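We emphasize that the prediction below concerns an isolated chain of 187 residues; any contacts that depend on oligomerization or on bound cofactors are therefore not represented. The input was used exactly as deposited, without trimming of termini.
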Amino acid sequence: MEDDEETIESIFDEREWTSEELSAELKKAIDELGWTPVELADRMVSLGDYRPHRTILRGIHRALLGQIKVSGELLALVKQEVRYKRRLRRTYDCLEWTKLPDQSWTTKAEDFIITLLPQTKGRWKVHMMHTETGYSPSWPRWQDSLPKAKEMALLTLDNAINWLAEVEQERTAENQRSPRRAINLAD
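Result of the prediction step, given as a token string:
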């Protein structure tokens, strides 16, 4: 084997990472996301983490401080979220936002009307509604800036699209399971 040839070890870096290195990697990824530990905990709950919110948050804080070793699952999740956010930016970068007379901003994407509503202290609330069904996903926490509100809108939009697709799949599966009876109108 040649010296410059890639091996499994060189690709996946089989060495043992220190708590400090893992904490630094986690912090770097969270910073790229622009999230606080609370926002990461919210995302983990939305993805199915069944633990109490305060337990998740305590674990994140301890991992960031290097008090505990960052789990592989947590680091993998945060790095995947970074990739996910980059994909959302690429996909929806061309959205045209319109400023309304009430100082809110609005756009339409994927059959959703998205509105960013100004709140007190420079914060923004994300609101959206599906034009065909009227479905409106839960409002995320208020965002501290307009750019953060736009990013949260994209994340909420993608979650809402996935939720609608899951509901449609469940309806289709239910329709296939339920018995069909022929009705004889002559009787």
